[in-house]
Every structure is written in C-alpha cells, then in structure tokens.
UniProtKB/TrEMBL annotation:
The keyword Cell cycle does not apply. An FAD-requiring monooxygenase active on some tetracycline antibiotic derivatives, which leads to their inactivation. Hydroxylates carbon 11a of tetracycline and some analogs. One of its GO terms (cellular component) is cytoplasm. This is Flavin-dependent monooxygenase. Residues 3-333 form the FAD-binding domain. It is found in: Cytoplasm. NADPH binds at R40.
Amino acid sequence: MTTRVTIVGAGIGGLVLARVLHVHGIASAVYEAETSVGSRAQGGQLDIHHDTGQPALELAGLTEQFRAIIHVGAEADRLLAPDGTVLIDEPDDGAGLRPEVLRGELRRVLLDSLPADTVRWGHKVAGARPLGDGRHELSFTDGGSVRTELLVGADGAWSKIRPLVSDASPGYAGMTFVETYLHDADTRHPGAAAAVGAGSMFAVAPGKWIGAHREPNAVLHAYVALHRPAEWIAAVDLTDTACVAAEFDGWAPELTALITDCDTGPTVRMIHTLPTDHRWDRTPGVTLLGDAAHLSPPSGEGANLAMLDGAELGAAIAAHPGDTEAALAAYEAVMFPRSESAALEALRMQATFVGAHAQSELTSTLAREVWTGRASDSAR
C-alpha cells in the first residue's frame, strides 16, 4: 500500500499536522505505536503560548474547541524559597497568554477533529528505508509495511525516522526529573496544596528544584529536578521517595510533601537533548517535527513548538501542491533557526538553575518561563 502523506507519531505535533492537512483537503495516515487512544497516560497540563501553540491551533481551525478545555485560573504563579517563604505570588490575570490545558484533553480535541481512520493504532515502527524518488517504506514490528510519497517523523526523542536525515542522537542533558501526583490535595495534603496555590509553584536552590502545578479536581502534579551526572543517577534509587527527599533536607515540609506524600509515582525521567544547532541537508520526501527534530531541555516551548511545526508544515504542503520538495524546504527554512533559538534559551535557563546564585538570579518573568517548561513538555 502507498499513501501520499505518512506521519509517524500521534502526539499533538503529528495530530496538528494531520488536522491542518485535513482542513486543506489533503488526506494523511498517522501510525502510532500505542494500541489505543487510552492505552497510556498523556501527562499533565500544558501551557499553550499565544505566539506558538495558539496560532497553530488557529491554523487547525480549533481555537473554539481549545478555549473550551482551558483550566481557568491555572495561569497563577508562585515562587517560593526552600524554607517555604513566598517570594512571588502572581494571580491569573486572565490575559490568556499561556492558558493551561490537560494534554490528554487537547489530544482528544485533535483526534475528534480527524476522520476516524486517520490514526492507525498499534503500529510500532521497526525501521524506515528510502526507495528512491523521495519515496520511503516503513516496516512495523508486527511484520507489516507501508510505502509513502511523503514521510514525517513526529515520533519524539527516540525517533525511528531521524536516521533517514541525520546521524544525531539524544544525549543526557545533566538533569533528571522525578514526577509525582497527589490526589484530593485540598483535603488529604493541605500543606502542599496551600504551597502550590491556584496554579504553578516553583522553589529552587543551586542544582535542584521542586515545581508543581494544580490540575483540575484538586490534583497536584509535581516535578522534582536534580542536576546530577548520569553516573550519580544510576547509583541511587530515585523510585524511593525517602532517597529523593533526602536531597532536599532542610526544605519546608509542605514542599518535601510533594515527594514523600505522593499517591502516584514516583516516575523517573532522565532529560535528553539534541545539539542546539541540529539540522540536516534537504532529504527528498522526508522531514521531522517536534522533539524528533529539536529535542531540548524543558523551557516551556516543547509542545508549543511541536504544534507550530505541524501547523506550518501542513500549510506549506497545501501551499505547494504537487511540489513536495518546495514545501519541505520552505518549512525547514523557518523551523531550523526557530528551534535553534529556543534550544539556546532552554540551555540558558538550565544554566541559571545550576549556578551557585540560582535563587537570586530568578526574576518573576524567568521563573514563569522556566517553570512553564515542565517535564511533560517532552511532547511529540
């Protein structure tokens, strides 16, 4: 079987691409390793930025549906000292510059906007090979295969499509997240709930920090970051909450409760990154978007850039009917410098947290920019 446009990965970046193509009357097939839409938890909240994610959803014709799932009030920000002192407390101003939505709900909106047969679940890619003339063949772990005229890798950090265009592979970024959930927080975890407040909370010390945000139904979703070498991470058991909490000895109990009192987790996530200047020569018939193209440390931009990549790639394909190479060249010419700039900014933010004067260097704006780049932003 040969398809015109094949997208690998049904994360929000790949789905935005499929939706924009659909808006323009262009059919696509999305191949996803997950067996069904509900087979895996989709992570926590995403802040959808006014200059990246929101324009992408507008190009997809989904602004109204997006606004219907916004978690009202969740743009509030708090910066705390390790002893629990509130340094910054900014309420949600209602401006809508980065409203919060649950990733799973946004994914549902995108899936509902596509023809039912667009996503092919349970198709884990084993490899991809060029056939010449810009065509490619995908092989799946179940023994099946498909051929395509245009192949897009939207399959995240460990992309199976990336080797077609680049020899780059992700390297450890020197930072590991430990992710936890606290449920029914206002009743069962009142100290932690009060510390987090109505939206996002962030507390930082050199080389480590604790962040959390309030999700609907009184759920607290926390990310504990340790800037440590890979050897150190391998030598300790970060699934042991007592082991993690020991790294924050002397911190306020309402903050360490986000570690020790978790109801779900902890989940350990080592953060990886591609080179900041990652790009490739124009390769006929194939390109990448999102983390497959420009994986970087969390900075608040990952999911937003993936959506913008997908929207702009879809628009470029529609604007160059019958000329795939012109479409891909136009898309990459804009995507490469944008993603490099975002990756450099992510590294600057990460360096701020590692430094000996991390807390004193944090301004309200920087705290917001960094904390809105939560671990769940490693989206496809």
